[in-house]
From TrEMBL:
Cofactor(s) recorded in Swiss-Prot or TrEMBL: heme
Source organism, top-level taxon: Eukaryota
Keywords, ordered alphabetically: Iron, Metal-binding, Oxidoreductase
Gene Ontology terms describing biological process: sterol metabolic process
Pathway: Secondary metabolite biosynthesis
Membrane-spanning residues: none
GO molecular function: heme binding; iron ion binding; monooxygenase activity; oxidoreductase activity, acting on paired donors, with incorporation or reduction of molecular oxygen
Family the entry assigns: Belongs to the cytochrome P450 family.
Keyword Nucleotide-binding: no
Full protein name: Sterol 22-desaturase
Record bears the keyword Repressor: no
InterPro entries (alphabetical): Cyt_P450_sf
Phylogenetic placement of the source organism: Eukaryota, Viridiplantae, Streptophyta, Embryophyta, Tracheophyta
Amino acid sequence: VLTEVQADLSSRYGFSTNYLIGKFMVFIRSSELSNLIFHNVRPDASMLVGHPFGKKLFGEHNLIYMFGQDHKDLRGRIAPNFTPKALSTYISIQQKIILNHLKKWEKIASSSLDNKPISLRLLVRDMNLETSQTVFVGPYLNANARRRFNQDYNLFNVVLPIP
């Protein structure tokens, strides 16, 4: 809701400013302006603001905290993963996984004799986790590595503070 209000305040140039929690913030609505700004982020001029615990959670060398040539080099290495061709292959992988999970959920629902509602939270989480693992790592994770990743991901989310 706050972002919608802030977006409504945007100037004809595609941005608005505000003070939030004592910090000057710029809200950018224009993709052209976003591109221009992201190409000029420097530690001596402006900084991107992520989650308050971002550096502790993701490390000092996460992409959003990098500057200069290191940032450009990393973006160049991951850019091929987001081309239209690459994205189109992810869709077919995701579709197969989603359909398999929907079939499992249907079996769970039909095996329930008392027609009680089924909590989807963990089922959807497992589906999303499998989708991410398969799309980003492919068939290279064995069952043990998937299980370990699942446990670590769960621990990470359990302790993740909500801002």
